[in-house]
Protein backbone atom coordinates (compact mmCIF):
# COMPACT_ATOMS: atom_id res chain seq x y z
CA UNK A 1 0.00 0.00 0.00
CA UNK A 2 2.81 2.41 0.90
CA UNK A 3 4.48 1.73 -2.44
CA UNK A 4 1.22 2.50 -4.27
CA UNK A 5 0.85 5.79 -2.37
CA UNK A 6 4.42 6.82 -3.20
CA UNK A 7 4.03 5.96 -6.88
CA UNK A 8 0.69 7.72 -7.25
CA UNK A 9 1.87 10.71 -5.24
CA UNK A 10 4.98 11.02 -7.38
CA UNK A 11 2.98 11.11 -10.61
CA UNK A 12 0.49 13.62 -9.17
CA UNK A 13 3.39 15.79 -7.99
CA UNK A 14 4.90 15.74 -11.48
CA UNK A 15 1.51 16.63 -12.99
CA UNK A 16 1.17 19.53 -10.53
CA UNK A 17 4.64 20.87 -11.33
CA UNK A 18 3.93 20.66 -15.06
CA UNK A 19 0.59 22.44 -14.57
CA UNK A 20 2.21 25.27 -12.59
CA UNK A 21 4.97 25.56 -15.21
CA UNK A 22 2.31 25.85 -17.91
CA UNK A 23 0.58 28.65 -16.00
CA UNK A 24 3.85 30.56 -15.52
CA UNK A 25 5.24 29.83 -18.99
CA UNK A 26 7.11 32.59 -20.78
CA UNK A 27 5.74 31.55 -24.18
CA UNK A 28 2.81 29.66 -25.66
CA UNK A 29 4.85 26.70 -26.95
CA UNK A 30 6.35 25.95 -23.53
CA UNK A 31 2.87 26.13 -22.00
CA UNK A 32 1.55 23.60 -24.53
CA UNK A 33 4.43 21.23 -23.81
CA UNK A 34 3.96 21.45 -20.07
CA UNK A 35 0.28 20.73 -20.65
CA UNK A 36 1.22 17.57 -22.56
CA UNK A 37 3.54 16.48 -19.72
CA UNK A 38 0.80 17.21 -17.18
CA UNK A 39 -1.74 15.12 -19.11
CA UNK A 40 0.70 12.21 -19.47
CA UNK A 41 1.57 12.26 -15.75
CA UNK A 42 -2.11 12.39 -14.75
CA UNK A 43 -2.93 9.44 -17.01
CA UNK A 44 -0.18 7.32 -15.42
CA UNK A 45 -1.24 8.42 -11.92
CA UNK A 46 -4.86 7.38 -12.53
CA UNK A 47 -3.80 3.99 -13.93
CA UNK A 48 -1.52 3.46 -10.94
CA UNK A 49 -4.24 4.45 -8.47
CA UNK A 50 -6.79 2.10 -10.05
CA UNK A 51 -4.40 -0.87 -9.80
CA UNK A 52 -4.95 -1.25 -13.53
CA UNK A 53 -2.94 -4.02 -15.15
CA UNK A 54 -2.16 -1.89 -18.17
CA UNK A 55 0.06 -4.60 -19.60
CA UNK A 56 -2.90 -7.00 -19.65
CA UNK A 57 -5.07 -4.27 -21.19
CA UNK A 58 -2.44 -3.65 -23.85
CA UNK A 59 -2.15 -7.37 -24.58
CA UNK A 60 -5.89 -7.53 -25.15
CA UNK A 61 -5.97 -4.49 -27.43
CA UNK A 62 -2.93 -5.57 -29.46
CA UNK A 63 -3.79 -9.31 -29.52
CA UNK A 64 -0.49 -10.02 -27.79
CA UNK A 65 0.15 -13.57 -26.51
CA UNK A 66 0.62 -14.20 -22.80
CA UNK A 67 4.20 -13.88 -21.50
CA UNK A 68 6.18 -17.02 -22.31
CA UNK A 69 8.72 -16.57 -19.52
CA UNK A 70 11.95 -16.95 -21.49
CA UNK A 71 12.12 -13.48 -23.06
CA UNK A 72 10.46 -10.13 -22.35
CA UNK A 73 8.88 -9.25 -25.69
CA UNK A 74 6.09 -6.84 -24.72
CA UNK A 75 8.15 -3.64 -25.30
CA UNK A 76 9.26 -5.10 -28.64
CA UNK A 77 5.66 -5.65 -29.76
CA UNK A 78 4.82 -2.07 -28.81
CA UNK A 79 7.88 -0.94 -30.73
CA UNK A 80 6.79 -2.76 -33.89
CA UNK A 81 3.41 -1.02 -33.85
CA UNK A 82 4.99 2.37 -33.04
CA UNK A 83 7.45 1.93 -35.91
CA UNK A 84 4.65 1.30 -38.40
CA UNK A 85 2.56 4.22 -37.10
CA UNK A 86 5.36 6.79 -37.05
CA UNK A 87 6.63 5.56 -40.40
CA UNK A 88 3.28 6.28 -42.03
CA UNK A 89 3.17 9.71 -40.37
CA UNK A 90 6.69 10.59 -41.51
CA UNK A 91 6.17 9.38 -45.09
CA UNK A 92 2.89 11.30 -45.37
CA UNK A 93 4.57 14.49 -44.12
CA UNK A 94 7.38 13.95 -46.63
CA UNK A 95 4.95 13.54 -49.52
CA UNK A 96 3.11 16.70 -48.51
CA UNK A 97 6.24 18.88 -48.38
CA UNK A 98 7.42 17.39 -51.69
CA UNK A 99 4.14 18.58 -53.20
CA UNK A 100 4.62 21.98 -51.53
CA UNK A 101 7.85 22.47 -53.47
CA UNK A 102 6.00 21.80 -56.72
CA UNK A 103 2.83 23.67 -55.70
CA UNK A 104 3.66 26.41 -53.14
CA UNK A 105 -0.04 27.14 -52.61
CA UNK A 106 -0.13 23.99 -50.45
CA UNK A 107 1.60 26.00 -47.74
CA UNK A 108 -1.97 27.31 -47.24
CA UNK A 109 -0.71 30.63 -45.88
CA UNK A 110 -0.75 29.15 -42.37
CA UNK A 111 2.37 29.06 -40.22
CA UNK A 112 1.65 25.55 -38.92
CA UNK A 113 1.53 24.07 -42.44
CA UNK A 114 4.46 25.98 -43.90
CA UNK A 115 7.39 24.10 -45.42
CA UNK A 116 9.79 25.49 -42.82
CA UNK A 117 7.86 23.81 -40.00
CA UNK A 118 6.83 20.60 -41.75
CA UNK A 119 10.29 19.79 -43.11
CA UNK A 120 11.91 19.13 -39.68
CA UNK A 121 8.70 17.34 -38.68
CA UNK A 122 9.22 14.97 -41.63
CA UNK A 123 12.94 14.38 -41.04
CA UNK A 124 12.54 13.77 -37.31
CA UNK A 125 9.49 11.56 -37.81
CA UNK A 126 11.35 9.33 -40.24
CA UNK A 127 14.76 9.32 -38.53
CA UNK A 128 13.92 9.41 -34.84
CA UNK A 129 10.32 8.17 -34.66
CA UNK A 130 10.32 5.50 -37.40
CA UNK A 131 14.04 4.66 -37.28
CA UNK A 132 14.46 5.13 -33.54
CA UNK A 133 11.55 2.88 -32.60
CA UNK A 134 12.81 0.24 -35.05
CA UNK A 135 16.27 0.36 -33.47
CA UNK A 136 15.00 0.17 -29.89
CA UNK A 137 12.59 -2.69 -30.67
CA UNK A 138 15.06 -4.76 -32.68
CA UNK A 139 17.91 -4.16 -30.21
CA UNK A 140 15.75 -5.47 -27.36
CA UNK A 141 14.86 -8.51 -29.49
CA UNK A 142 18.40 -9.25 -30.68
CA UNK A 143 20.20 -8.74 -27.36
CA UNK A 144 17.91 -11.22 -25.61
CA UNK A 145 18.28 -13.93 -28.27
CA UNK A 146 22.03 -13.57 -28.74
CA UNK A 147 22.76 -13.30 -24.99
CA UNK A 148 20.16 -15.92 -23.95
CA UNK A 149 18.95 -13.60 -21.22
CA UNK A 150 15.79 -11.64 -20.44
CA UNK A 151 15.91 -7.87 -20.59
CA UNK A 152 17.57 -6.38 -17.54
CA UNK A 153 15.35 -3.97 -15.59
CA UNK A 154 11.98 -4.70 -17.31
CA UNK A 155 10.29 -1.65 -15.75
CA UNK A 156 13.07 0.55 -17.12
CA UNK A 157 12.65 -1.02 -20.57
CA UNK A 158 9.01 0.07 -20.52
CA UNK A 159 10.05 3.54 -19.39
CA UNK A 160 12.42 3.69 -22.38
CA UNK A 161 9.59 2.92 -24.80
CA UNK A 162 7.00 5.31 -23.35
CA UNK A 163 9.57 7.99 -22.55
CA UNK A 164 10.75 7.89 -26.16
CA UNK A 165 7.18 8.30 -27.41
CA UNK A 166 6.81 11.38 -25.18
CA UNK A 167 10.02 12.78 -26.69
CA UNK A 168 8.59 12.26 -30.19
CA UNK A 169 5.33 14.02 -29.31
CA UNK A 170 7.13 16.96 -27.67
CA UNK A 171 9.53 17.34 -30.59
CA UNK A 172 6.80 17.08 -33.25
CA UNK A 173 4.44 19.54 -31.61
CA UNK A 174 7.37 21.87 -30.98
CA UNK A 175 8.20 22.00 -34.70
CA UNK A 176 4.61 22.92 -35.56
CA UNK A 177 4.64 25.62 -32.88
CA UNK A 178 7.93 27.06 -34.14
CA UNK A 179 10.00 25.84 -31.19
CA UNK A 180 13.37 24.96 -32.67
CA UNK A 181 17.10 25.42 -32.09
CA UNK A 182 17.58 25.70 -35.86
CA UNK A 183 20.11 22.83 -35.96
CA UNK A 184 19.46 20.16 -38.57
CA UNK A 185 18.47 16.83 -36.97
CA UNK A 186 18.87 18.52 -33.55
CA UNK A 187 15.95 20.94 -33.62
CA UNK A 188 14.25 20.17 -30.25
CA UNK A 189 14.81 22.78 -27.55
CA UNK A 190 16.72 22.39 -24.30
CA UNK A 191 14.09 20.75 -22.07
CA UNK A 192 13.19 18.17 -24.74
CA UNK A 193 16.92 17.46 -25.14
CA UNK A 194 17.20 16.91 -21.39
CA UNK A 195 14.28 14.49 -21.43
CA UNK A 196 15.80 12.52 -24.32
CA UNK A 197 19.10 12.32 -22.42
CA UNK A 198 17.32 10.71 -19.46
CA UNK A 199 15.54 8.21 -21.72
CA UNK A 200 18.75 7.42 -23.61
CA UNK A 201 20.71 6.73 -20.42
CA UNK A 202 17.92 4.37 -19.34
CA UNK A 203 18.16 2.67 -22.76
CA UNK A 204 21.92 2.18 -22.28
CA UNK A 205 21.36 0.74 -18.79
CA UNK A 206 18.79 -1.79 -20.07
CA UNK A 207 20.86 -2.84 -23.10
CA UNK A 208 24.19 -2.92 -21.26
CA UNK A 209 22.65 -4.68 -18.26
CA UNK A 210 21.26 -7.41 -20.49
CA UNK A 211 24.70 -7.99 -22.01
CA UNK A 212 26.29 -8.14 -18.54
CA UNK A 213 23.82 -10.80 -17.37
CA UNK A 214 24.17 -12.92 -20.52
CA UNK A 215 24.51 -16.70 -20.33
CA UNK A 216 26.19 -16.82 -23.77
CA UNK A 217 29.95 -16.12 -23.35
CA UNK A 218 30.40 -14.59 -26.80
CA UNK A 219 29.02 -11.13 -27.59
CA UNK A 220 27.61 -11.38 -31.11
CA UNK A 221 28.75 -8.68 -33.56
CA UNK A 222 25.25 -7.17 -33.88
CA UNK A 223 25.41 -6.22 -30.20
CA UNK A 224 28.70 -4.41 -30.78
CA UNK A 225 27.05 -2.32 -33.49
CA UNK A 226 24.02 -1.60 -31.27
CA UNK A 227 26.24 -0.64 -28.33
CA UNK A 228 28.39 1.68 -30.46
CA UNK A 229 25.24 3.36 -31.78
CA UNK A 230 23.83 3.90 -28.27
CA UNK A 231 27.08 5.21 -26.75
CA UNK A 232 28.07 7.46 -29.64
CA UNK A 233 24.62 9.00 -30.06
CA UNK A 234 24.65 9.81 -26.34
CA UNK A 235 27.99 11.61 -26.69
CA UNK A 236 26.93 13.48 -29.84
CA UNK A 237 23.56 14.49 -28.40
CA UNK A 238 24.98 15.85 -25.15
CA UNK A 239 27.82 17.86 -26.70
CA UNK A 240 25.92 19.31 -29.67
CA UNK A 241 22.95 20.34 -27.54
CA UNK A 242 24.90 22.17 -24.84
CA UNK A 243 22.95 25.40 -24.49
CA UNK A 244 21.82 28.08 -22.08
CA UNK A 245 18.05 28.60 -21.69
CA UNK A 246 16.84 32.19 -21.59
CA UNK A 247 14.35 31.18 -18.89
CA UNK A 248 13.63 27.94 -17.05
CA UNK A 249 9.96 28.59 -17.87
CA UNK A 250 10.49 29.28 -21.57
CA UNK A 251 11.45 27.33 -24.64
CA UNK A 252 14.18 29.60 -26.03
CA UNK A 253 17.87 28.79 -25.52
CA UNK A 254 21.23 29.75 -27.04
CA UNK A 255 23.97 27.35 -28.08
CA UNK A 256 27.13 27.11 -25.99
CA UNK A 257 29.11 27.41 -29.24
CA UNK A 258 29.25 30.23 -31.77
CA UNK A 259 30.42 30.89 -35.30
CA UNK A 260 32.44 28.28 -37.14
CA UNK A 261 32.87 26.25 -33.93
CA UNK A 262 29.10 25.93 -33.70
CA UNK A 263 28.91 24.85 -37.35
CA UNK A 264 31.65 22.25 -36.93
CA UNK A 265 30.08 20.86 -33.75
CA UNK A 266 26.71 20.69 -35.49
CA UNK A 267 28.04 18.73 -38.46
CA UNK A 268 30.19 16.53 -36.25
CA UNK A 269 26.82 15.64 -34.75
CA UNK A 270 24.83 15.69 -38.00
CA UNK A 271 27.16 13.44 -39.97
CA UNK A 272 27.60 10.98 -37.13
CA UNK A 273 23.87 10.87 -36.50
CA UNK A 274 23.85 9.40 -40.01
CA UNK A 275 26.95 7.33 -39.25
CA UNK A 276 25.83 5.77 -35.99
CA UNK A 277 22.04 6.15 -35.88
CA UNK A 278 21.30 5.36 -39.53
CA UNK A 279 24.33 3.18 -40.29
CA UNK A 280 25.78 1.37 -37.26
CA UNK A 281 22.37 0.70 -35.69
CA UNK A 282 20.87 -0.61 -38.92
CA UNK A 283 23.98 -2.69 -39.66
CA UNK A 284 23.28 -4.41 -36.34
CA UNK A 285 19.82 -5.24 -37.69
CA UNK A 286 21.38 -6.55 -40.90
CA UNK A 287 23.91 -8.77 -39.11
CA UNK A 288 21.14 -10.51 -37.16
CA UNK A 289 18.08 -10.59 -39.39
CA UNK A 290 19.68 -11.34 -42.79
CA UNK A 291 21.32 -14.58 -41.55
CA UNK A 292 18.13 -15.55 -39.69
CA UNK A 293 15.86 -15.01 -42.69
CA UNK A 294 18.34 -16.65 -45.07
CA UNK A 295 18.93 -19.50 -42.59
CA UNK A 296 22.64 -19.18 -43.29
CA UNK A 297 25.55 -18.08 -41.06
CA UNK A 298 27.21 -14.73 -41.67
CA UNK A 299 29.49 -15.16 -44.69
CA UNK A 300 32.63 -14.07 -42.82
CA UNK A 301 32.49 -13.32 -39.12
CA UNK A 302 36.08 -12.13 -39.29
CA UNK A 303 35.10 -9.57 -41.92
CA UNK A 304 32.25 -8.36 -39.70
CA UNK A 305 34.74 -7.60 -36.90
CA UNK A 306 37.01 -5.72 -39.31
CA UNK A 307 33.94 -3.90 -40.64
CA UNK A 308 32.95 -2.85 -37.13
CA UNK A 309 36.27 -1.45 -35.93
CA UNK A 310 37.18 0.31 -39.17
CA UNK A 311 33.72 1.91 -39.40
CA UNK A 312 33.81 3.04 -35.78
CA UNK A 313 37.25 4.61 -36.13
CA UNK A 314 36.75 6.34 -39.49
CA UNK A 315 33.16 7.63 -39.35
CA UNK A 316 33.61 10.01 -36.43
CA UNK A 317 36.15 12.14 -38.38
CA UNK A 318 34.19 12.66 -41.59
CA UNK A 319 31.78 15.44 -40.53
CA UNK A 320 33.74 18.42 -41.95
CA UNK A 321 32.91 17.36 -45.51
CA UNK A 322 29.51 19.01 -44.93
CA UNK A 323 31.31 22.35 -44.65
CA UNK A 324 33.43 22.44 -47.81
CA UNK A 325 34.02 25.97 -49.17
CA UNK A 326 32.96 27.63 -45.90
CA UNK A 327 34.82 29.51 -43.15
CA UNK A 328 36.02 26.17 -41.73
CA UNK A 329 39.84 25.93 -41.92
CA UNK A 330 41.04 24.19 -45.06
CA UNK A 331 42.94 21.52 -43.11
CA UNK A 332 39.71 20.49 -41.36
CA UNK A 333 37.85 20.29 -44.68
CA UNK A 334 40.62 18.15 -46.15
CA UNK A 335 40.67 15.91 -43.07
CA UNK A 336 36.93 15.30 -43.45
CA UNK A 337 37.35 14.54 -47.15
CA UNK A 338 40.19 12.03 -46.58
CA UNK A 339 38.35 10.10 -43.89
CA UNK A 340 35.17 10.12 -45.99
CA UNK A 341 36.99 8.52 -48.94
CA UNK A 342 38.56 5.96 -46.59
CA UNK A 343 35.06 4.99 -45.41
CA UNK A 344 34.24 3.53 -48.80
CA UNK A 345 36.11 0.25 -48.26
CA UNK A 346 34.77 -0.81 -44.83
CA UNK A 347 31.27 0.15 -45.95
CA UNK A 348 31.50 -2.07 -49.00
CA UNK A 349 33.05 -4.80 -46.87
CA UNK A 350 29.86 -4.82 -44.81
CA UNK A 351 27.67 -4.80 -47.92
CA UNK A 352 29.57 -7.73 -49.44
CA UNK A 353 29.39 -9.63 -46.15
CA UNK A 354 25.62 -9.19 -46.06
CA UNK A 355 25.07 -10.15 -49.69
CA UNK A 356 27.41 -13.15 -49.52
CA UNK A 357 25.51 -14.47 -46.52
CA UNK A 358 23.10 -15.75 -49.18
CA UNK A 359 25.93 -17.87 -50.57
CA UNK A 360 24.31 -21.20 -51.40
CA UNK A 361 20.80 -19.80 -51.01
CA UNK A 362 20.59 -17.42 -53.98
CA UNK A 363 17.28 -18.96 -55.04
CA UNK A 364 15.68 -17.41 -51.95
CA UNK A 365 15.82 -14.03 -53.69
CA UNK A 366 13.32 -15.38 -56.21
CA UNK A 367 11.01 -17.12 -53.77
CA UNK A 368 11.20 -15.01 -50.59
CA UNK A 369 10.11 -11.34 -50.88
CA UNK A 370 11.54 -10.55 -47.43
CA UNK A 371 15.00 -11.74 -48.50
CA UNK A 372 14.57 -9.76 -51.72
CA UNK A 373 13.85 -6.65 -49.66
CA UNK A 374 16.97 -7.24 -47.56
CA UNK A 375 19.14 -7.70 -50.65
CA UNK A 376 17.78 -4.50 -52.20
CA UNK A 377 18.47 -2.67 -48.93
CA UNK A 378 22.08 -3.85 -49.03
CA UNK A 379 22.36 -2.78 -52.67
CA UNK A 380 21.19 0.74 -51.76
CA UNK A 381 23.59 0.73 -48.80
CA UNK A 382 26.45 -0.04 -51.16
CA UNK A 383 25.36 2.62 -53.63
CA UNK A 384 24.95 5.31 -50.95
CA UNK A 385 28.27 4.51 -49.31
CA UNK A 386 30.01 4.89 -52.66
CA UNK A 387 28.17 8.08 -53.56
CA UNK A 388 28.83 9.72 -50.17
CA UNK A 389 32.65 9.48 -50.33
CA UNK A 390 32.53 10.58 -53.97
CA UNK A 391 30.49 13.68 -53.06
CA UNK A 392 32.92 14.50 -50.24
CA UNK A 393 35.73 15.09 -52.75
CA UNK A 394 36.05 18.86 -53.11
CA UNK A 395 35.96 18.86 -56.91
CA UNK A 396 32.66 16.96 -56.91
CA UNK A 397 31.31 18.86 -53.92
CA UNK A 398 31.77 22.17 -55.71
CA UNK A 399 28.98 21.00 -58.03
CA UNK A 400 26.79 19.03 -55.62
CA UNK A 401 26.82 21.26 -52.52
CA UNK A 402 23.52 23.03 -51.73
CA UNK A 403 21.78 21.22 -54.61
CA UNK A 404 19.10 18.55 -54.71
CA UNK A 405 21.77 15.98 -55.58
CA UNK A 406 22.40 15.86 -51.82
CA UNK A 407 18.67 15.26 -51.28
CA UNK A 408 18.76 12.37 -53.75
CA UNK A 409 21.81 10.90 -52.01
CA UNK A 410 20.21 11.12 -48.56
CA UNK A 411 16.96 9.55 -49.70
CA UNK A 412 18.55 6.71 -51.65
CA UNK A 413 20.16 5.76 -48.35
CA UNK A 414 17.24 6.55 -46.04
CA UNK A 415 14.46 5.06 -48.18
CA UNK A 416 16.54 2.33 -49.78
CA UNK A 417 18.83 1.17 -46.98
CA UNK A 418 17.10 2.19 -43.74
CA UNK A 419 13.54 1.87 -44.98
CA UNK A 420 13.80 -1.48 -46.74
CA UNK A 421 15.86 -3.21 -44.04
CA UNK A 422 13.37 -1.96 -41.42
CA UNK A 423 10.39 -3.22 -43.43
CA UNK A 424 12.06 -6.62 -43.81
CA UNK A 425 12.77 -6.81 -40.07
CA UNK A 426 9.16 -5.90 -39.25
CA UNK A 427 7.96 -8.66 -41.57
CA UNK A 428 10.34 -11.09 -39.84
CA UNK A 429 9.34 -10.07 -36.31
CA UNK A 430 5.55 -9.79 -36.54
CA UNK A 431 4.57 -13.48 -36.94
CA UNK A 432 7.16 -14.55 -34.36
CA UNK A 433 6.20 -11.98 -31.74
CA UNK A 434 2.47 -12.67 -32.10
CA UNK A 435 2.91 -16.46 -32.49
CA UNK A 436 1.38 -16.64 -35.97
CA UNK A 437 2.07 -19.31 -38.56
CA UNK A 438 3.30 -16.69 -41.03
CA UNK A 439 2.43 -13.25 -42.35
CA UNK A 440 -1.12 -12.70 -43.52
CA UNK A 441 0.07 -12.35 -47.13
CA UNK A 442 3.46 -12.82 -48.79
CA UNK A 443 2.05 -11.50 -52.06
CA UNK A 444 1.39 -8.16 -50.36
CA UNK A 445 5.04 -8.13 -49.25
CA UNK A 446 5.95 -8.56 -52.92
CA UNK A 447 3.69 -5.64 -53.87
CA UNK A 448 5.29 -3.55 -51.14
CA UNK A 449 8.76 -4.41 -52.42
CA UNK A 450 8.08 -3.32 -55.98
CA UNK A 451 6.17 -0.16 -55.04
CA UNK A 452 8.95 0.89 -52.67
CA UNK A 453 11.74 0.05 -55.12
CA UNK A 454 10.18 1.89 -58.06
CA UNK A 455 9.36 4.81 -55.74
CA UNK A 456 12.97 5.05 -54.56
CA UNK A 457 14.30 4.94 -58.13
CA UNK A 458 11.94 7.71 -59.24
CA UNK A 459 12.77 9.81 -56.21
CA UNK A 460 16.55 9.41 -56.28
CA UNK A 461 16.95 9.63 -60.06
CA UNK A 462 14.86 12.79 -60.32
CA UNK A 463 16.87 14.45 -57.55
CA UNK A 464 20.18 13.41 -59.12
CA UNK A 465 19.14 14.98 -62.41
CA UNK A 466 17.73 18.04 -60.65
CA UNK A 467 20.83 18.52 -58.50
CA UNK A 468 23.33 18.26 -61.33
CA UNK A 469 21.16 20.60 -63.42
CA UNK A 470 21.00 23.08 -60.53
CA UNK A 471 24.75 23.04 -60.00
CA UNK A 472 25.51 23.54 -63.69
CA UNK A 473 22.94 26.34 -64.11
CA UNK A 474 24.09 28.17 -60.97
CA UNK A 475 27.68 28.40 -62.14
CA UNK A 476 27.06 29.13 -65.83
CA UNK A 477 28.67 32.45 -66.77
CA UNK A 478 28.23 34.37 -70.02
CA UNK A 479 30.97 36.04 -72.06
CA UNK A 480 30.22 39.28 -70.21
CA UNK A 481 31.06 37.66 -66.87
CA UNK A 482 27.50 37.68 -65.56
CA UNK A 483 25.44 34.65 -64.51
CA UNK A 484 23.43 33.26 -67.43
CA UNK A 485 20.45 32.08 -65.38
CA UNK A 486 18.46 33.95 -62.77
CA UNK A 487 17.64 31.99 -59.64
CA UNK A 488 13.94 31.99 -60.59
CA UNK A 489 14.80 30.30 -63.90
CA UNK A 490 16.61 27.51 -62.06
CA UNK A 491 13.58 27.02 -59.80
CA UNK A 492 11.25 26.86 -62.82
CA UNK A 493 13.47 24.25 -64.47
CA UNK A 494 13.10 22.06 -61.37
CA UNK A 495 9.31 21.71 -61.65
CA UNK A 496 9.19 18.43 -63.66
CA UNK A 497 11.74 16.85 -61.32
CA UNK A 498 9.66 17.85 -58.30
CA UNK A 499 6.61 16.16 -59.83
CA UNK A 500 8.56 12.94 -60.42
CA UNK A 501 9.88 13.06 -56.86
CA UNK A 502 6.35 13.42 -55.49
CA UNK A 503 5.24 10.45 -57.62
CA UNK A 504 8.08 8.37 -56.19
CA UNK A 505 7.12 9.40 -52.67
CA UNK A 506 3.50 8.46 -53.32
CA UNK A 507 4.54 4.98 -54.45
CA UNK A 508 6.73 4.57 -51.37
CA UNK A 509 3.89 5.68 -49.08
CA UNK A 510 1.50 3.29 -50.86
CA UNK A 511 3.87 0.41 -50.14
CA UNK A 512 4.02 1.40 -46.47
CA UNK A 513 0.20 1.47 -46.28
CA UNK A 514 0.12 -2.06 -47.72
CA UNK A 515 2.66 -3.10 -45.07
CA UNK A 516 0.52 -1.60 -42.29
CA UNK A 517 -2.52 -3.52 -43.58
CA UNK A 518 -0.54 -6.77 -43.85
CA UNK A 519 0.96 -6.45 -40.38
CA UNK A 520 -2.38 -5.40 -38.92
CA UNK A 521 -4.13 -8.48 -40.34
CA UNK A 522 -1.30 -10.67 -39.07
CA UNK A 523 -1.57 -9.23 -35.56
CA UNK A 524 -5.36 -9.58 -35.60
CA UNK A 525 -4.98 -13.28 -36.36
CA UNK A 526 -6.97 -13.09 -39.59
CA UNK A 527 -7.10 -16.30 -41.65
CA UNK A 528 -4.06 -16.52 -43.90
CA UNK A 529 -4.67 -15.27 -47.41
CA UNK A 530 -4.86 -18.14 -49.89
CA UNK A 531 -2.16 -17.40 -52.44
CA UNK A 532 -0.38 -18.95 -55.35
CA UNK A 533 3.17 -19.97 -54.31
CA UNK A 534 5.95 -17.60 -55.33
CA UNK A 535 8.27 -20.36 -56.57
CA UNK A 536 6.58 -21.41 -59.81
CA UNK A 537 9.52 -20.38 -61.98
CA UNK A 538 11.82 -23.19 -63.06
CA UNK A 539 14.70 -23.71 -60.66
CA UNK A 540 18.18 -24.42 -62.00
CA UNK A 541 20.37 -25.81 -59.19
CA UNK A 542 23.50 -25.24 -61.28
CA UNK A 543 22.85 -21.50 -61.14
CA UNK A 544 22.73 -21.59 -57.35
CA UNK A 545 26.03 -23.29 -56.59
CA UNK A 546 27.67 -21.88 -53.45
CA UNK A 547 31.00 -20.17 -53.78
CA UNK A 548 34.04 -21.46 -51.93
CA UNK A 549 33.22 -21.59 -48.22
CA UNK A 550 34.83 -18.93 -46.06
CA UNK A 551 36.35 -19.57 -42.61
CA UNK A 552 34.29 -18.41 -39.66
3D structure, described in words:
With about 550 residues, the chain is mainly α. It has helices spanning about 1-25, 30-50, 55-60, 75-100, 115-145, 155-175, 190-210, 220-240, 260-295, 300-315, 330-340, 345-355, 365, 370-390, 395-400, 405-435, 440-475, 485-495, 495-525, and strands at about 245, 255. It has two domains: about 1-50; about 70-530, Cytochrome c oxidase-like, subunit I domain (Cytochrome C Oxidase, Chain A). A hairpin with a 7-residue loop joins strand 1 and strand 2 (about 255). Helix 7 (about 190-210) packs antiparallel against helix 8 and helix 9 (about 260-295) runs antiparallel to helix 10 (about 300-315). Mean pLDDT is about 90; it is low at about 545-550. It catalyses: 4 Fe(II)-[cytochrome c] + O2 + 8 H(+)(in) = 4 Fe(III)-[cytochrome c] + 2 H2O + 4 H(+)(out).
Q: Please tell me how large the radius of gyration is.
A: 24 Å
In terms of structural class, how would the helical and strand content be classed? mainly alpha
Give the overall shape, derived from the CA principal axes: globular
**Main sheet makeup:** 2 strands, antiparallel
Total of helices = 19
Q: What is the count of structural domains?
A: 2
CATH class of the largest domain: Mainly Alpha
CATH architecture of the largest domain: Up-down Bundle
Mean pLDDT: 91
Write down how many β-strands occur, each being a DSSP E stretch of 2 or more residues. Answer: 2
Q: What separation lies between the terminal Cα atoms?
A: 56 Å
CATH topology of the largest domain, by name, is Cytochrome C Oxidase, Chain A
H/E element sequence: HHHHHHHHEEHHHHHHHHHHH
The percent of residues in helical segments reads over 70%
Q: In order across it, which strands form the biggest sheet?
A: 1-2
* Superfamily (CATH H level) name of the largest domain: Cytochrome c oxidase-like, subunit I domain
Proportion of strand residues: under 5%
Low-confidence residue ranges? 543-549
